[in-house]
Specification:
17-stranded antiparallel β-sheet, two-stranded antiparallel ribbon, 9 helices, about 45% strand, elongated
């Protein structure tokens, strides 16, 4: 592979910098960058204190690969990969253990090669990082009519990033960030059923039945599961005796989360829409040990067994949430006699469960927190102008008085004397009532419940097992609270 320089090579006062980029065919885009800065680099007129006191050597390589293009087009494989690696070394000009002495002089004062090697290794600052990411790997094979078993419904993502650092004060510091996700997304396109398509008759109700459609399958189904693991480990150097080899205890932090999501949309009819979303965040139980296979092999094996057992059990739920919504619009637009009515009813609910704190003493249980809320809303709009057009007498008044405004007041007076004054007065009173063209009605009711002392835990879809009975979140919080003895 040949690299074509994107910028020219630059050399100035002990600094070498080179950037190269190339495009290898259509599926690889690598980039390489290298840099070297010597100690003492700086502008000519800059004071000595502003000049660098360390030399820096850095190299970074990154590449984006689309390996799916290497396969036959019939496979329809999408396999994007991003890979990056970097390495940076900082060499100080002065001894970090005695900053008044140059590092070269401190090395020459040592008597043994072992001591010089240890001091040289301790004086350096070495940073390394490496990352690999696969984003939405999928096989785009789909049936002519999308089916649930199509490979295109599945996609996979993966990421693995590591970084390490060694400094004069830190023996080693390591960071791991790992995640993997699997997603299933299915959207059927089947035609809805028309159970009354062969209904006979020419009445508005018959036309309404013939146009009625029913969809027994969901409009979209999404299932997603992902795991995220973070691990940090740090070993500080002992500052008491520089080269004695005394080690301080290592510190570490760990987190392993398993997230699961469900999204379901269903439109049984064109006027009824249902939506349901739920998600569970579970913690993969890990023993509080240093996960280092080279330094602590026994602890690493114990960690591996504990994590495997926790994954098989589905983890320990720490948070669960669900949202459900229902929207129904009255099918009055399809019925001629009721087409002036626009009415919609909607209901939404939310439910969440959060695990209580975990104490070192397993015999002491802290209750969990449960919260639920629901909102019912109804909106109705009466388009009376459209209703008036269906009543001949009212439609006549609308046409008469809407055009009467174009005549003069004198002409209206003559017409009133020539006609029946009583009928004229009644018509004008009726037209005054017709000034109301639209009426809007809105009703909304919201309820919420908070239970900070909820003892039961959740199950797969958020149900709680109470005294051998399974109570789902939407079956009433008060009933469950009474069963638990909370009130």
């Amino acid at each position: 592979m040949s690299f074509v320089p994107a910028t020219t090579t630059r050399k100035q006062a002990g600094q070498d910098s080179y950037t190269a980029r190339s495009s290898w065919r259509s599926w690889a885009k690598p980039a390489l960058r290298a840099q070297y800065v010597s100690a003492g680099f700086g502008a000519i007129d800059a004071p000595l204190m502003s000049r660098t006191l360390e030399s820096r050597r850095a190299i970074q390589f990154a590449s984006t690969l689309e390996l799916g293009q290497l396969l036959p087009p019939e496979a329809k494989v999408t396999l994007p990969i991003y890979y990056t690696v970097s390495d940076e070394v900082l060499t100080p000009q002065y001894n970090p253990l005695d900053e008044d002495v140059k590092l070269t002089d401190a090395l020459s004062d040592l008597s043994t090669e072992r001591e010089r090697k240890e001091l040289r290794a301790r004086s350096l600052t070495h940073r390394r990082s490496q990352g690999l990411a696969l984003s939405k790997v999928a096989v785009g094979i789909r049936s002519e009519e999308p089916m649930p078993y199509d490979p295109a419904n599945l996609s996979f993502s993966y990421g693995h990033n590591t970084s390490s650092e060694e400094t004069p004060d830190i023996e080693y510091s390591r960071h791991l960030d790992w995640h993997a996700a699997l997603r299933y997304d299915y959207t059927p396109t089947f035609r809805p059923l028309r159970p009354f398509a062969k209904a006979s008759g020419s009445s508005p109700w018959a036309n309404f039945l013939r146009q009625y459609t029913f969809t027994p399958w969901p409009s979209r189904l999404v299932l997603e599961t992902s795991m995220v693991r973070r691990y940090d480990e740090e070993q500080l150097r002992s500052l008491g005796d520089e080269l004695s080899g005394t080690r301080l205890p290592a510190t570490f932090a760990q987190q392993f989360i398993w997230n699961r999501r469900l999204q379901l949309n269903w439109n049984p009819t064109h006027s009824l829409q249902l939506a349901f979303n739920s998600g569970t965040d579970a913690r993969i139980e890990e023993p509080h040990v240093q996960v280092n296979r080279q330094l602590q092999p026994d602890a690493w094996r114990a960690w591996r067994d504990s994590v495997g057992q926790s994954i098989r059990e589905g983890g320990t739920p720490v948070h669960y949430a669900q949202q459900a919504s229902l929207s129904y619009q009255l099918p009055t637009a399809d019925i001629a006699l009721l087409s002036f009515i626009r009415s919609q009813l909607s209901y939404s609910s939310a439910y969440s469960w959060d695990r209580g704190a975990v104490l070192p003493d397993p015999t002491i249980r802290l209750a969990h927190t449960l919260m639920a809320q629901g909102a019912l809303e109804s909106t109705t709009q009466l388009q009376l102008r459209q209703l008036y057009q269906h009543i001949p007498a009212l439609a006549r008044l609308e046409r008469r008085f809407s055009t009467a405004g174009m005549t003069t007041s004198e002409g209206r007076g003559k017409k009133a004397k020539a006609g029946n004054e009583g009928n004229e007065l009644i018509d004008r009173l009726l037209y005054a009532l017709l000034m109301v063209k639209d009426i809007s009605l809105t009703y909304r009711s919201t309820r919420s419940t908070l239970l900070p002392g909820f003892l039961p835990t959740i199950r797969a879809i958020g149900g709680a097992r109470l005294f051998g009975r399974c109570a789902l979140p939407w079956r009433g919080l008060c009933l469950r609270a009474k069963r638990c003895g909370l009130h």
